[in-house]
From TrEMBL:
It comes from Hevea brasiliensis. This is B-like cyclin. PROSITE patterns: CYCLINS. Pfam families: Cyclin_C (PF02984), Cyclin_N (PF00134). One of its GO terms (molecular function) is cyclin-dependent protein serine/threonine kinase regulator activity. Residues 345-464 form the Cyclin C-terminal domain.
Length: 472
């Protein structure tokens, strides 16, 4: 192979007649590698340690094995720096400043035992010692400046705990304003009730497009806002020729006409509304009161019915008391006085919704509610004292008391009607009073209507004793 020539501390090996200086290899190669790859001073330190041997190198210790050791160490340093660079590029915002050396040590490959590379136990001790020192040095973490908090930093943990404690203490603190506001809402009954006590009455109509579940709440809010426009107040003092009893007789007769023509329930309620509104703005002689009644029902039929009765039908049912021209003239006069304003929320609009809110309501419950409502509409004091929504809610409450439904008034009904039990008490007492007197009254149309089997004979049931005792 060649021979070893000793020259002081330098060792030169002649390979194939060419002299290779070991110092030249140890000094020049790392410099070139460092300049090309930019890997730092690690390779330079390795090469410097390799040439610090105090004795001449033997033939088996020089040449290719030493160069391989140096190259392997250079590759290890490259891998370390590449992992460090990747760690810096891929770190998340939370890990700013907690970087890298720990991550690099976790992902890097284990260093191969240098003793296995250098002649399987025959290599120089100095080289192994230098390599072990290099490996140990590589495990020393660099100084890291912590910018943000991290779970691995004890100081950051303490700061985080302190902040969290302060945050939780701030959440628990209640200001005087919030305390006073909560007490005011509780005193006024505005505190929110638990949602578990409210029943979703529209759950079964989600697939029914005609139910308009998405808009029904807004529709009834609008009805509540506009019901005052269609409400009448005391007007009998403006009518010198008619009185409240005559009005009741007219309504009782119209109930029979409505039943005879088999009209929709909405038609009856709208008819009574049109009559009251017209009488509130126009003085009517006694002889024309029935004409006002049939003309108002003609208008309501045109508004509500699919197949409305003709003018001749109303003339016939009034025993030819009026002629066709009179009916048409009165119809025109009514529409002119009301300014064609017919889309008004009558009690029927609210009755339908409130009966639905009376959960577990059956046909008997529905018939009882309509019976009490029609008894109330026939009485002048009820119409002028209470708004349509209150009449409807009171009819539902009185019906539940009559049928002994427990509880008499639920949170669901209170939510949808907007009335408490105390607010309904006055009107409900009147309705129950009319129910108890209906059997002996001369006005039998409503009593007869709800005494039949098709209406469940609810008019024959005993009135609510609890409300009768309070009214007496």
């Amino acid at each position: 192979m060649g021979k070893t020539i000793e020259t002081g501390n330098n060792a030169v090996k002649e390979i194939n007649g060419t002299g290779v200086n070991i110092d030249y290899l140890n000094e020049t190669a790392p410099k070139i590698e460092r300049e090309v790859s930019g890997i730092g001073n690690e390779a330079w330190k390795v090469a410097s340690r390799n040439r610090m041997c105090s004795r001449p190198l033997k033939e088996s210790e020089i040449g290719l094995p030493v160069i391989l050791v140096t190259n392997n160490l250079i590759e290890e340093v490259k891998q370390k720096n590449n992992v460090v660079a990747n760690g810096r590029n891929r770190r998340v915002l939370k890990d700013i400043g907690n970087l890298v050396n720990d991550r690099a040590l976790q992902v890097k490959k284990p260093v191969t035992d240098v003793s296995n590379v250098v002649g399987a136990g025959k290599g120089p001790v100095a080289t192994r010692v230098a390599t072990k020192k290099l490996v140990e040095k590589k495990h020393v973490p660099e100084t890291v400046i912590v910018i943000s908090s991290d779970d691995e930093s004890e100081k950051s943990k303490l700061v985080g705990r302190r902040v969290s404690k302060e945050g939780s203490s701030r959440k628990d603190v209640k200001t005087l304003t919030s305390i006073l506001t909560a007490r005011s809402k509780a005193a006024c009954g505005l505190a929110k009730k638990p949602e578990q006590s409210l029943v979703n009455i529209d759950a079964t109509d989600l697939e029914n497009e005609l139910a308009a579940v998405e808009y029904v709440d807004d529709i009834y809010k609008f009805y509540k806002l506009t019901e005052a426009d269609g409400r009448v107040h005391d007007y009998m003092h403006l009518q010198p020729d008619i009185n409240a009893k005559m009005r009741s007789i007219l309504v009782d007769w119209l109930v029979e006409v409505h039943r005879k023509f088999e009209l929709m329930p909405e038609t009856l309620y709208l008819t009574i509304n049109i009559i009251d509104r017209f009488l509130a703005v126009k003085v009517v002689p006694r002889r024309e009161l029935q004409l006002v009644g049939i003309s108002s029902m003609l208008i309501a039929c045109k508004y509500e019915e699919i197949w409305a009765p003709e003018v001749g039908d109303f003339i016939c049912i009034s025993d030819n008391a009026y002629i066709r021209e009179q009916v048409l003239t009165m119809e025109k006069a009514i529409l002119g006085k009301l300014e064609w304003y017919l889309t008004v929320p009558t009690p029927y609009v609210f009755l339908v919704r409130y009966i639905k809110a009376s959960v577990l309501s059956d046909k008997e419950m529905e018939n009882m509610v309509f019976f009490l409502a029609e008894l109330g509409l026939m009485q002048y004091p009820v119409v002028i004292m209470f708004c349509p929504s209150l009449i409807a809610a009171s009819a539902v409450y009185a019906a539940r008391c009559t049928l002994d439904k427990s509880p008499f008034w639920t949170e669901t009904l209170k939510h949808h009607t907007g009335y408490s039990e105390d607010m309904l008490m006055d009107c409900a007492k009147l309705l129950v009073k009319f129910h108890s007197a209906s059997a002996e009254s001369k006005l039998k149309a409503v009593q007869k209507k709800f005494s039949g089997a098709d209406r469940g004979a609810v008019a024959l049931l005993t009135p609510a004793k609890s409300l009768l005792a309070q009214s007496s």
